[in-house]
Amino acid sequence: MESLRNRLDEQHIIVKENEQNIWTNKEVTSQITSQQNEIKAKWMQANLEGIPNIEAFNKGKAAIQDQEKMLKTNKETLDKINEELARWKTAEQYDEYSAQIKELSGALDEVQYLAQLQAISKKLELELSSIEEKKKTLATLYTKVAAGINEVHEYIKSINPLWSALLKRVVVNPRFSEITLDSYSYQNKNQADVKVTLHDDKVKVVEVASESQITDLQLTFMLSMAQTYSWTPWKALLLDDPTQHHDLVHAAGVFDLLRDSIIDNKFQVLLGTHDSIQARFFQRKLQNDGVPVRLWNLLVDENGVKAERMD
Questions:
Q1: CATH number of the domain located at residue range(s) 159-310 in this protein
Q2: Domain ranges of the chain
Q3: pLDDT for 189-202, tens place per residue?
Q4: What whole-number distance in Å separates Cα of residue 45 and Cα of residue 110?
C-alpha cells in the first residue's frame, strides 16, 4: 500500500512537470507567433511578395540598394544643375547691375563716375562737418544768451526799490506803492509781470490802472533803468507826451521828477507834447531852478513840417 502511494506521488510530480512544460511551450509558441506576425506585417509594408523568406528578402534588399544608388546619382546631377542655375542668376544680376550703373553714370565710364561720386561724398562730408560746427556754435551761443538773459532778469529786478521810490512821487494811489516787477523766461522768450494787490489777491496792474497810471509806471521804470545803468554816453530822455492823460495837478508830479532827473542826474530831456499849457508850465518849473529850456513849435505848411522857436 505504501508503495502504491509513493508511485502515485511520483505520477503527480510528473504530471505537474508536464503541465509546466506545456505552459512554457505555449508561451514560447505565443512569442514566436507574435514575432512571425510582426515580420509578416513589415514584409507587407515593404511591398514584398509571398511569405517571408531569405531569398525574397535579399532580392528586395538588392532592389532598394539599386534605387538608393540611382537616387544618389540623380541628387548629384540636381546639385550640379542648381550650381549652374546659381551661376546664371549671378550673371543676370551682374548684367542688371551693370545696366543700372550705365543708366546712372550716363556718358561717364565706371571709373569716372566713381571718382565723381567720391568727390560729391567728400563735399557733403565737408558740408556736414561745417553744419556740425555751426550747430555747436549755435548751442554755445544759446547757452551764453540764456545765461545773459538770466543776468538781465537780475538787473531788471534790482531796480525795484528805486522804481518803487520814484513811483510814489507821481502816483498817489497807495495800491501802487508796493508793486514789483518779476522778470523771467518762458519758452525761450522774455516775460515780465507787474502785479498789485486787490482784495487780498494779486492781479496784473494793467487790469486796474488808469491810462495815466500806466504811463507813470512806464516812465518811472524807464527812469529807474536809466539811472541805474548807463546805456550810452549821452544821458538823454526822449519822451512822447508823458502827461497826455494827466491834468495839470498830476502832471506837476511828473515834471518835478523830470526836473530832479535833469538837475541831480544830469539828464537832457527832449519832450514832445500837444498841450501848450503843460509845456509852458514845465518850462517855468525848469527856469525857476535855473535850467535852460527851449520850446519849439512844429508847424505844417505846403512844404512839409518845420520847427519854429517859441520865446
A1: 3.40.50.300
A2: 159-310
A3: 666 677 777 777 77
A4: 65
